[in-house]
## 1
Amino acid sequence: MPKQLPLTDLDACCSPLAREPLSEGQAVELSRLFKAMSDPVRLRLLSLIASHAGGEACVCDLTGAFDLTAPTISHHLKVLRESGLVTGERRGTWVYYRVHPEVLARLSAVLVPGEETVPA
Amino acid sequence: MPKQLPLTDLDACCSPLAREPLSEGQAVELSRLFKAMSDPVRLRLLSLIASHAGGEACVCDLTGAFDLTAPTISHHLKVLRESGLVTGERRGTWVYYRVHPEVLARLSAVLVPGEETVPA
DNA sequence: CGTCTATATTGACAGACCTCTAATTAGCTA
DNA sequence: TAGCTAATTAGAGGTCTGTCAATATAGACG
């Protein structure tokens, strides 16, 4: 099962959610990203990676922060990878992860609230 | 960090995800919001409500946009309500939903990517 | 080669989730 | 009161998800 992200609607995207209704395709794409962030462990992993010095973190930097087995961390990293939020690169014995800042920026832009409408 | 209000981590929150690691509590709170947005139907509902004229939408304005039964729409609206993203108010026969813009703004702020670090 | 360490994959299981139909509640109007 | 509509709740069925133990893969090094 090839899990490459097909980036269709998201490319033409990112007028804020509150400005005009999302198309079904946009909603599907965005929901995939939000689902990847819908678990506390994955959110912390994402944050640990994004905020780590040098912009990348080794898996070995991450596992210690959780009371979970290595396979579980690996599973969550895979979900983050397949969502397109992060990439992993093997260098020798270790695997280093870094975030895709454009994806974060895109999500942030989508969530910007629209201007207030005057209450009736 | 001043802790004035008796609420959760989200109140004291919102340094961007990429700036420093999320606390476990912050991650739990945020993951609840992202989970509420992790379904395409709920995302479109949220967008329909947020972008609707007057800042609010009647359930009757929403159901027509989907090939789903009324109970299913109602279920999704409940999830959005319980997450704190929207509120519903009954006025006569109809129920009107509106978004909490502060919550959207908070999420948007959390996702702002950190400044680029110079590649090695 | 063999062995050690760091990650990933597999397979299983309990719990959560999305959708439906059927039943229920809330309000309007006769 | 009864009847009608808008919306929600309850319960069931099938699917998806998070976690683990066991196993496998990749590279470093003697």
## 2
Amino acid sequence: MDKQAIYDDLKKRILTLELEPGAALDEARLSEHYRISRTPLREILRGLAGEGCVDIVNNRGAYVSSMSHKVLRDFFVTAPMIYAAIGRLAAQNAKPSQIHEMREIQEKFRAAIAAQATADMVYCNQCFHALMGEMADNPYLKPSYDRLLIDHARISQTFYRPRDPQMAERMYSALDHHDQMIAAIEAGDSKTMVDLIVEHWELSRDLVEYFVKPDPLAYDMAAANS
Amino acid sequence: MDKQAIYDDLKKRILTLELEPGAALDEARLSEHYRISRTPLREILRGLAGEGCVDIVNNRGAYVSSMSHKVLRDFFVTAPMIYAAIGRLAAQNAKPSQIHEMREIQEKFRAAIAAQATADMVYCNQCFHALMGEMADNPYLKPSYDRLLIDHARISQTFYRPRDPQMAERMYSALDHHDQMIAAIEAGDSKTMVDLIVEHWELSRDLVEYFVKPDPLAYDMAAANS
DNA sequence: GAGTTTTATATTGTATACAATTTGTATACA
DNA sequence: TGTATACAAATTGTATACAATATAAAACTC
């Protein structure tokens, strides 16, 4: 397992919440686990800190970045603007090879949904949106976008309930959006792309809203039975 | 000189173009210069890479991040949106202690302009806008904003001509904008704030436009004398 | 028994030595 | 003369040992 692979593995474990927000990342333990010395491991942790996955406190170690209420609020304030901008730029700047790669990811995504393989779904979705960031090809937006994607993955996992039939519906909507996005990107149609991004975003927003404000239990049993 | 001081010093040297875009950052040379070993120096370089000051290529060392035409274009595409968003959030979220600090920076800025101390002007301006980023208090926008500020400083220095009388005018306009911004932030008036940000931005845009498209020399000497 | 100081342990930070990779140069050959 | 290969130098990457700092525990004072 080389350095990049360890980097990716750690990032994946953070994204999938296997390493929970706030969890301490002990250098000695991790370096032993991955069979490398502390020096390169520290560089990996600092790299992840640059991406926003990890918070480092001087002389007190590294922690998986937290997900406080404030962070959640900031996420919902910021994501629409950045996502729209990235979508617009992706439609303008995508290279043919990237569009091809996107189609491949989309087919894997489709298969994962059909197979109800939650982990694969999350991963393919992540790849799809990360690639969109590459297409946009803007070094100033990329760091913010990547940070949003990291927390987007974590938030989605927090609120996703695999047994709820509404979830399957949502996933097929998302899949459909992705198909339309690929078409818009190929056509270089940035206006349609932004509309799709907004629509897609509302899926995520509604998921959390539904969690915070779920269908209430009947508080008047007599009425519920009538 | 502790680690943070070395970090700041390197960043400052990059911002002031003392270390030019694309310049190689030799680990051995730098570690000797700052009297620390390579291990912490490497961490500093990776930290700066996370901020976007430095590009690191595997097995081929660190370089001051470049300023290609594409980067310049991306800068002008992206900055208005992010600056406006940061301005709006700063007006909404600024804490009294931060407003107080901002006033102090502004007075130093005023003094630097009066004294025509270019380096101090650049530094105070940088501090002013960095503090605005702190006020906005949004972890998703901050990485993009900081990256924009780094290149903004470098671009401004590239196109600034201290001997041009127009430059002094511009600086007084900027100073005036800053005064008005502080008032808007204190009043929590985010609408006015965004208008000011746009106006302030046009100063920077015009500076570069003027450089790219300066007053042409007379090409018809007869006509010029008539 | 509560609070403070001291001591021990654990963890992070730094220096140095060594390994791996890349780059430059010289030489052989077409 | 141009290209390819082999070797040498320089530079980056990693491991390990040691130093500094923070946390936990124990002893002490009041």
